[in-house]
Amino acid sequence: MPEQRSSQWYAGDDRNAYIHRAWMRRGLPAHAFDGRPHIAIANTASDLTPCNAHLNEVAESVKQGVYEAGGIPLNLPVVSLGETLVRPTAMLWRNMAAMATEEMLRANPVDGVVLLGGCDKTIPSLLMAASSVGLPAVVVPGGPMLTGTFRGVPLGCGTDVWRLSEEVRAGTLSQEAFTKSESSMIRSRGHCNTMGTASTMGLVAEALGMVLPGLAGTPAADSRLLEAAHDTGRLAVEMVAEQRTPAAVLTRGSFLNAIVALAAIGGSTNAVVHLLAIAGRLGVELSQDDFDRTGSDVPLLVDLQPAGRFLMEDLFRAGGLHAVLREVSDLLDPTAITVTGKPLVDYLDTAEIWDREVIRPRADPLLPHAGIAVLYGNLAPDGAVVKPAAASEHLLQHRGRAVVFDSIEDMHARIDDPDLDVDADSVLVLRGCGPKGYPGMPEVANMPLPRKLLQQGVRDMVRVCDGRMSGTAYGTVVLHVSPEAAAGGPLALVRTGDFIVLDIEARRLDLDVPGDELALRTPDPATVAAFANPQRGWERLYVRTVQQANTGADLDFLTGASGSDVSRESH
Ligand code: FES
Ligand code: MG
């Protein structure tokens, strides 16, 4: 075994080594400091991140595994982001969580790390952090909730909130029934059970190779999660011995595998910004266009909400991620290894589909081409993203008049106004919602439809926004428009009444305004006034340094890695 990094703190007879050991001697025996690996458990458990609250129990299982393999486990609570509660958007804090976790891993005497995440931003921030530190690291995704039912019908977290609230607005569901459904939505511990961002990132983390093979997607309440957490603790000790770092696992090939997986499972568009940000930490060449090139011909095989019918518990029962990946294994990079050191594809041979309604065989996909389409045009010079699987067939090619909102408040104030000049062919535009503009790029792109159109039976319209969309939402929504309005993007120049042309097949998003006329336009003062202008603290740092969605919305000074070396002593 190579000398441990932690031995820089603990080895020797001098005063500093004494201090480092003595303060850790609260139950740790002398042999804890004999050069065995110290494994941090970066734990995002928090009562305010209810999706991750059970991770303390998971951490206990990881600890047992670490001990069993001869290591010393150390619980390290890290910044935790609860998607539903944190304002103005958890995405504003993803980079802060990543930075704080990175620095605490580097600053402390640890040799490897087990990353415990679940709720949307937690796994991305942990992977960004671990990639920039470069210590051996492995993820335990906390797993989805069990399926809750309301009036005999399964409820999908998130997706059914949108659906039920639209039903209330359309007058087809009573407010009382809506409120009653609240207690049925969250049946157990765990994260959202739809194919939202949390489910997506757990599965994608495994496709990347960063999870003990077969673990991702195990429901949070399933005993097998604790067994796999125990095994992950053992694995972390082995990974330190072999110095299997994130850079060894996360190659371009593993990112392309993740893109294939993302498409086949019908995963969240948020995975695009997260994977780009993780790749940026490692210096792996990956662009938004890779998602279209590699992902858009992959068949959609998993029939989960929001695009389909089932929920995460069903996917697990039907064979899980490996059964899905086996169907598309010819599209996977056979050289991309996992945390075990063995290639991902080695784990797929024995996988089987147990329910062909939930996981469709390759020959009978839900859609022949899934994935994410990246659009370009004079409205999105650096690209915009759309998920064709969540869009309506009749809107894939569309030309309509823009109805423009400068902010989320402006949209809420006017969207249900009976006098709003809007019809089913209109294109709803919401700007000021990018990384800088909001700040933090919230999940608002799936704007509610005007009440008067809902009452006419309209259920989808083309929407264009520089923000993100919840992974649990659906509709013909063009999002991540780059550059955003607040960063000088042409989205700031759109006026109500302009025609917008969307052509998903041709990958185009254009404003039908002559170039010379557009060149003369400047943003309206009201548009600019709606952009965030924070004066201090994290928000100010964020707005000044955040990059655009097309490269992952990381802070400019956080891309890349610093390794695990710390040059100076604290005493
Ligand atoms: Fe935590 Fe959906 S709110 S995963
Ligand atoms: Mg979300």
From TrEMBL:
Biological processes per GO annotation: branched-chain amino acid biosynthetic process
Keyword line: 2Fe-2S, Amino-acid biosynthesis, Branched-chain amino acid biosynthesis, Iron, Iron-sulfur, Lyase, Metal-binding
Signal peptide: none
Domain Dihydroxy-acid/6-phosphogluconate dehydratase C-terminal, chain residue ranges per copy: 357-553
GO molecular function terms listed in the Swiss-Prot or TrEMBL record: 2 iron, 2 sulfur cluster binding; hydro-lyase activity; metal ion binding
SUPFAM superfamilies membership: IlvD/EDD N-terminal domain-like (SSF143975), LeuD/IlvD-like (SSF52016)
InterPro entries linked: Dihydro-acid_dehy_C (IPR042096), ILV_EDD_C (IPR056740), ILV_EDD_N (IPR000581), IlvD/EDD_N (IPR037237), Sugar_Degrad_Dehydratases (IPR052352)
Segments forming domain Dihydroxy-acid/6-phosphogluconate dehydratase N-terminal: 36-344
NCBIfam families hit by this protein: PRK06131.1 (NF004784), PRK13017.1 (NF009560)
Family that this chain belongs to: Belongs to the IlvD/Edd family.
Protein name as it appears in the record: Dihydroxy-acid dehydratase
Organism in which the protein naturally occurs: Umezawaea endophytica
